[in-house]
Amino acid sequence: MKKTFLLTSLLSLLFAVSLHAQIPVVSKAAKALPKVDLGVKLGANFQELSGNLSAQYRGGVVGGVFVGLHKNRMGVQVEGLIKTVAYKVNVSGFNTLPVPPTTPSASVNAITLEVPVLFEYKIFWHIWAQAGPEFSSILSAKDGSTDYKNKFDANDFGAVIGLEAHLPMRLNIGARYIYGVTNINNESESHIAGSMKNRTAQLYVGFRFI
User: If one looks up domain 35-208 in CATH, what number appears?
Assistant: First the structure.
């Protein structure tokens, strides 16, 4: 029994020494690699459709997942988000030509998938500046049972600029503005001439799992 105890103790000591000897190597390798962030986010989406249809910001929600890589003061973050917005639009030209004398309106509830690819730079403390492209696609656009999705070009491209704070307790908070570049007016279906582009402001909170 005594020999077994001594042998076990010796093996445990050798394992501890071996592990201790390897820790600096592991630590150096870990420091050389970028830090990985993976998490979820949820926030408020304020959006307008500039042009002939709508010119006022209306509220919705935005949420999804993000993954990022950071090293020193530089980083990149990719997100997959679902957002909602209710466009207040004049629909007189949507269904008939010529345009009737009245201009009935509709609240078109749109659901959009967006994928921003953001380059990040730590400007001070835990504050990171963000900028990059965003690709989005309209999944649904309805007013009740009336489907208006074909009135819009489903795919959109925008430019993002924002600030994000990486806080303790694995929390993120941020604000950003997305300037839509693409004309999403499908004139052949909407029967309305002119450009329509998205303008979006977002506020959000996120939680990092790692």
Answer: 2.40.160.20
